[in-house]
Specification:
With about 325 residues, the protein is mainly α. The protein has helices at about 5-20, 35-60, 70-75, 85-110, 115-135, 150-175, 175-190, 200-205, 210-215, 215-235, 240, 245-265, 275-300, 305-310, 315-330.
Length: about 325
């Protein structure tokens, strides 16, 4: 039974084993000076994979990252080797981007909105993103960009949303402390089967619409544009490749769609040429229909009915979530 396995723990074991077995005299993974370029190249590429997987898991799970920034910076060493490719540049760029997002999350977690560090956190993260874009945007123009541009716009969106989510949460905690404590006590008493309602609990306590409303109008428009650009980068992938995308990318795309609907509904009446309602709704619908198409392929599998009796299709739930929210906010929209 693998359900009890703790992936960060096993990553720590792999990290220690890799560092001890392949590090050089200076502590750098695979760069002892005794290896030839080919061996150093493969060692650094493996190291970069470990870094990217770990920082991504730390962001999505909320677990503490066990690699420090000095060792994250070692990922750049691969670009000094003669056989480095576009693939390696994209990976190094994505590691740097995820590190900005992770560091911002940590600042939000340890400080209240009234401290100097917290007040500077958002502007500092924006500056870091601008510097990142100056360094890595050249990859956007290359034939093989994969999802680096998507990751940039998605990361920008998440930083804005986390900041205003925290701002809203702190403002509400000052006026509804007794309600929040009571709700938390009630939730903690639920058994594991009842805790599947965590989504409803969080939505009622921190409604997306309220968090969006807490943003200044120009920030909402900026947020919407980044969300839409992320979505466009995802759906331009040919369906033959799209249906094999990772669960992480599909989840991020669905989240972008739902956020795009929420913000678009809020700002659609604003007189702003940057708000392209029809185009945005069309792209959201495209993602939803692609998910439905993947589901149709699932139904052709002989084992899907047995699995669905226990665990409903995630893809189907994603499709229904987009369709239901689209119908709720834009009931008159027709494809």
């Amino acid at each position: 039974d693998g359900s009890g396995l703790d992936s960060p723990f096993f990553f720590g074991l792999k990290y220690d084993n890799y560092s001890n077995s392949s590090s050089g005299d200076d502590g750098d993974p695979g760069f002892s000076g005794k290896n030839d370029d080919s061996k150093s190249f493969m060692s650094f590429r493996l190291w970069n994979h470990l870094c990217l997987v770990h920082i991504t898991h730390s962001i999505y799970s909320g677990r503490m990252c066990v690699i420090d920034e000095v060792r994250f910076d070692l990922s750049r060493r691969i670009l000094e080797l003669p056989n480095a490719t576009n693939f390696d540049g994209r990976m190094v760029g994505e590691i740097a981007l995820h590190l900005i997002l992770y560091n911002f999350m940590q600042k939000c977690n340890v400080a209240s909105s009234s401290t100097p560090d917290a007040m500077d956190a958002l502007e500092s993260a924006k500056e870091d993103l601008n510097e990142w874009l100056e360094e890595w945007s050249y990859l956007f123009t290359q034939p093989i960009t994969q999802f680096l541009e998507f990751a940039y716009h998605y990361g920008y969106t998440m930083i804005l949303y986390m900041w205003y989510h925290q701002t809203y949460r702190l403002s509400e905690s000052n006026t509804k402390k007794q309600w929040g404590k009571q709700s938390e006590n009630t939730f903690q008493k639920q058994d594991d089967a009842e805790k599947i309602s965590i989504g409803n609990y969080l939505n009622s306590k921190y409604p997306i619409e309220a968090i969006v409303e807490a943003m200044p109008l120009d920030t909402r428009v900026d947020f919407l544009n980044h969300t839409h650009k992320a979505l466009k980068n995802l759906i331009r992938t040919e369906f033959s490749a799209f249906k094999y995308l990772s669960d992480q990318l599909i989840f991020a795309g669905v989240l972008c769609s739902l956020l795009c609907i929420a913000v678009l509904h809020n700002v659609q009446s604003a007189d702003n040429d940057a708000i392209k309602v029809d185009e945005m709704l069309s792209d959201i619908k495209t993602l939803s229909m692609r998910l439905q198409q993947i589901r149709s392929g699932e139904l052709k599998s002989f084992w899907v009915e047995e699995v669905d009796l226990k665990i409903p299709s995630v893809i189907l739930q994603y499709h229904k979530a987009i369709e239901n929210y689209l119908q709720e906010k834009f009931p008159s929209y027709e494809t």
